[in-house]
Amino acid sequence: MADAGGPAGSYLAALPSSIRRGPDHWLASYLAMLRFDIASQRTWLPMFILTQVLFGTGMAIIYGFYIGPGMSPEVALFIVSGAPALAAITAALIGVTSMVTERKLAGTWDFIWSLPAPRSAAVASTFTVYTAMTIPGIVATLALAAWRYGLHLSVSPMAVPAFILASVMVTSAGFAMALAIRDPLVTNVIVNALIFVVLLFSPVVYPITQLPGWLAAVHRVLPIYYLAQVLRASVTTGLVHNVTASYAVLAAWTVAAWVATTWVIGHRR
């Protein structure tokens, strides 16, 4: 077993030194890894949430500058309801991928994989921490953007499952991508390219009908458009139709990310 001395030892001491199996062992391992993840990321957590809020709210305000003072309440509502999607995507592309890459460079994943704990428990712990951190950023971004434009949102009970599914999906996708790509430099290049695409060419703060036909068709396969639709439907009325399909697409992408992550961690030595 790898040396668990130092700060990590107090959070991983509950892990057994012999191989065990079963639900009880998995749960004990998950809780131990959860304490480890929270402790190891505690200095980064506030910055993670702040980055989401600044990115999502900032883009909502900037798009308002583009349109100018004559912006109608309907347009403002569309922009504001899209801001949480920008915050969630930021969490995945910047926060989650940065964490995975940092652990790769530091050899933390090698240490974690060497522990007598199921790898699935370690991954589930990381998913839990970053999913939980994404939700406050979504809520804060929505509140600040609505305040900036003086809007009153129609928050529905579906906001809870919408925020949770959105957070789980972006966390899963970011984690799977960063873990699957071995070279951190390649990960960084892809992340920067995706941020550019999300900012300029994704139907988050403008309707998908504004895009050329081929690009709209691409976005009807990718999860970004559906992420914005699910979040928008939970805080507005009349702007989104057939939201069930959006939930189905997000769930499918989440499962695909979990499958990819399971494959990667199962083949890493």
Topology at a glance:
Blueprint: H1 9-12, H2 23-40, H3 45-67, H4 73-106, H5 108-114, H6 119-149, H7 159-180, H8 184-201, H9 213-219, H10 224-235, H11 243-267
Helix pairs in contact: 2-6, 3-4, 3-6, 4-6, 4-7, 4-8, 4-10, 6-7, 7-10, 7-11, 10-11
The gist of it:
The protein has 269 residues and is mainly α.
Question: Which features characterize this protein?
Answer:
disordered N terminus, 269 residues, mainly alpha
Structure overview:
There is one protein chain. The longest helix has 34 residues, at 73-106. With 269 residues, the protein is an all-alpha fold. It has one domain (22-267). Helix 4 (73-106) packs antiparallel against helix 6 and helix 4 packs parallel to helix 7. Helix content is 75%, strand content 0%. The chain has helices at 9-12, 23-40, 45-67, 73-106, 108-114, 119-149, 159-180, 184-201, 213-219, 224-235, 243-267.
Order of helices and strands: HHHHHHHHHHH
Continuous helix count: 11
Structural class: mainly alpha
Outline, from the CA principal axes? Answer: elongated
Give the helix level as a range of percent: over 70%
- Biggest sheet features: none
